Recover the amino acids of this structure.
């Protein structure tokens, strides 16, 4: 049987992380891989084009006893995450060589996917392929389900989005504007604030790092209170939001990036507001809602084509720069959705 | 016009309270009242038979800036709360002398009700009248809405109730058993634990005051986790519950009695569990659900008549003992629903 062995650069997960992840927690290495599947294999071999850097990856790096919404990563093994790939060889009837796919893959040049149900075919190719790590992928569906299904927005309601220029936040803000809501976002730099106001059409935005008093900042932005909060950060921000929520408010609990690298977690003191204001808080994750991808894609591709939503990405180039790109999420280095380009189609 | 002036003993609310309420925060006094309404009045004059002591009254005693789900009490004025009364005179077409009513009244022997929409006629009289302060009143509807509507129980699910022998908790536990759930309650004394297991049919119960580690106690009682938590206490208990919740769990946030008398409030650290376990938390209060009283009464009166639910009250006698009865709620002195008997029908 003909072998086609090539070098395969990889990023390994070194060991469980405590505190902020560092580049040294990931190891760049290389092995060889056969680009021809053995006879009888039902796996799919892919060439990775884009890798996605997402905040949820941090909880997966903690020792499993820490609650995490996905299985923990395995020390010594290649890092895994969402990506866009091209099929090189396939033993699975659903996929064939040359097809473009997105889904869970490895942080490496080539990946052998033994559970092809984690791959999805790419249907729309008139948008950048990298969008399948963002607006058309997990962050997109997260924004869609969290905003429309959990927050049940009504025209004229007030919406607050934290981490608003990130992969999910920028979409939530635009969905909220399309729904006729008043939308304010927060982020951690002037550049991001400008992006929110000028590119994504938020009605207002503030730099949380420059506010002495988050409760007062929210009171200033929402004099009559917040109907909907899209929670991406947790901790002190959540506490300030609770004091500023309106009665019958809804909080979609999507992420708590401010809390992933610290232990003990920041205290939240104002949960009594849940009763006094009859607030709903609902945690959710994308894997529970995968069946909504078809309707979501149909809706969002339309928005993109009509120019009703836009999407900003921060693209790092090369696998060797993937670890620092991932780590950058936790200091807010990225402007927009962080993605890593490995290879053009 | 004939006057029928009588003495009217009253409990006044002295001034806003910080920390635990004391008897001295309430003043026993008396005034005179005319038992005949003046010509043309549209008010209703009632003789109070039972007064209800409920935890929600504590937030009403704080200076209004503190979030409270009802209006604050007015210093110097008579205390108000739920009660059962008999109409003495009425200028309102919906009520006539001799009728029994329940609703918001004053902590006094006779009350002049100027907003008769706060009164409800008593329909079923084959149960103790005091039940309209409890199982057939605000706590009853609270248990009913919180458990059935917010927690959406399914047969075989696990249910945890804190403050389980209280007015609301004892009903939630019994509703949960009727729904085919496995139910564990916690309370603060052996006598209450016995009540939960032997009278209300809880599958298990524990004394939270005797547990070193609430997280471990819940793990022991729920080895596979909690599907439904009926939240009455807040603080450290909520934190321990979050770690023990199962995926897709529901938390009906009814009260946080452990937090009403302290400032700052106890920290909650484990809200990330909302995401990892996709938990719903929903705050609620009875006034939003008053339209459900007819269906609720029909259901619960049936349960009472068939002996399917039971109700335990702690009855203090005399208006002069009302302040200490109310305060006793916050140290758990009451066994079952705390009510004050002022007069027999």
């Amino acid at each position: 049987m003909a072998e086609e062995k090539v070098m395969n650069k990889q990023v390994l997960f070194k060991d469980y992380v405590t505190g902020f992840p560092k580049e040294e927690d990931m190891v760049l290495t290389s092995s060889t891989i056969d680009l021809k599947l053995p006879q009888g294999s039902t796996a799919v071999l892919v060439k990775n084009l884009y890798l996605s850097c997402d905040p949820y990856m941090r909880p997966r790096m903690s020792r499993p006893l820490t609650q995490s919404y996905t299985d923990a990563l395995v020390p010594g093994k290649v890092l895994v995450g969402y990506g866009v790939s091209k099929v090189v060889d396939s033993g699975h009837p659903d996929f064939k060589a040359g097809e473009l796919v997105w889904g869970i893959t490895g942080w490496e040049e080539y990946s052998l996917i033994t559970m092809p149900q984690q791959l999805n075919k790419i249907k729309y190719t008139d948008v950048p392929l990298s969008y399948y790590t963002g607006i058309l992928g997990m962050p997109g569906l997260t924004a869609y389900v969290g905003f429309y299904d959990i927050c049940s927005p009504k025209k004229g309601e007030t919406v607050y989005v934290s981490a608003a220029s990130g992969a999910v936040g920028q979409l939530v803000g635009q969905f909220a504007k399309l729904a006729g809501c008043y939308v304010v976002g927060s982020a951690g730099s002037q550049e991001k604030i400008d992006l929110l106001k000028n590119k994504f059409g938020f009605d207002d935005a503030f730099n949380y790092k420059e506010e002495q008093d988050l409760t007062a900042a929210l009171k200033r932005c929402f004099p009559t209170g917040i109907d909907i909060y899209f929670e991406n950060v947790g901790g002190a921000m959540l506490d300030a939001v609770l004091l500023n929520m309106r009665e019958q408010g809804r909080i979609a609990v999507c992420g708590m990036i401010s809390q992933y690298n610290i232990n003990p977690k920041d205290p939240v003191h104002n949960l009594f507001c849940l009763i006094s204001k009859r607030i709903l808080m609902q945690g959710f994750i994308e894997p529970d809602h995968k069946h909504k991808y078809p309707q979501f894609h149909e809706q969002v591709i339309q928005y993109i084509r009509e120019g009703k939503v836009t999407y900003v990405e921060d693209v790092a180039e090369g696998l060797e720069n993937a670890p620092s790109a991932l780590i950058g999420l936790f200091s807010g280095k990225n402007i927009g959705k962080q993605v890593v380009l490995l290879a053009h189609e």
Remarks:
- Chain A has two domains: 5-134+312-341, 138-287.
